[in-house]
Specification:
six-stranded mixed sheet, 7 helices, 6 strands, alpha/beta
């Protein structure tokens, strides 16, 4: 029995205090824009995409809640189905509960509106404990923070893409 390897396998995916200190506090999310919401919906409805069901995740701050609500309204108005809307705190013991709620039903895509630090923690738990696929995940502009891939860990966010406040798009298609 290789106890070190086993401990590593079952070790919590939480971000270490040293990493948190090294990267500092990312900014709080700003309110979403109409252009951002339109661009995000555009990413999910590009030609060739067959996305009908989504699970929406959001931080508990006001801008993230509002962005999730706005996306839910637009998605349903387009005839899409929202399987779950899940929130999470910025600080938690493990983020396992929101991770399992987000992935309980297998949506075609996940949509995230969040503060970077809480999402980094959640993303680590999602990759460690569920079948979540960042390549099937889309985010609001608040997650376009250069520290996010480093905080989340190597390849944790590979393929995540999102919208910018001015209606552009971004992605993490390069290995982190």
């Amino acid at each position: 029995m290789n106890t070190r390897k086993e401990r590593q396998q079952y070790r919590s995916p939480l971000i270490s205090a040293a990493d948190l200190a090294a990267y500092g506090d990312p900014p709080a999310p700003a309110p979403h824009t109409d252009a951002e919401l339109k661009a995000l919906v555009g990413l999910l409805t590009e030609p060739g995409k067959r996305i009908g069901t989504v699970a929406i995740g959001h931080s508990r701050d006001r801008p993230s809640r509002a962005a999730a609500e706005a996306f839910t309204t637009v998605w349903k108005a387009r005839g899409g189905t929202v399987l779950a809307v899940v929130d999470w705190p910025e600080v938690a013991a493990s983020w396992l509960r929101p991770a399992t709620r987000l992935t309980a039903e297998l949506p075609d895509a996940w949509v995230m509106a969040a503060a970077p630090l809480g999402f980094a923690q959640l993303a680590r738990r999602l990759r460690h404990s569920t079948d979540w696929d960042p390549a099937r995940s889309y985010a609001f502009a608040s997650l376009r923070d250069s520290r996010l891939p480093a905080l989340a860990g190597a390849r944790t966010l590979h393929g995540l893409r999102g919208a910018t406040a001015d209606g552009g798009t971004w992605d993490t298609l390069s290995p982190c």
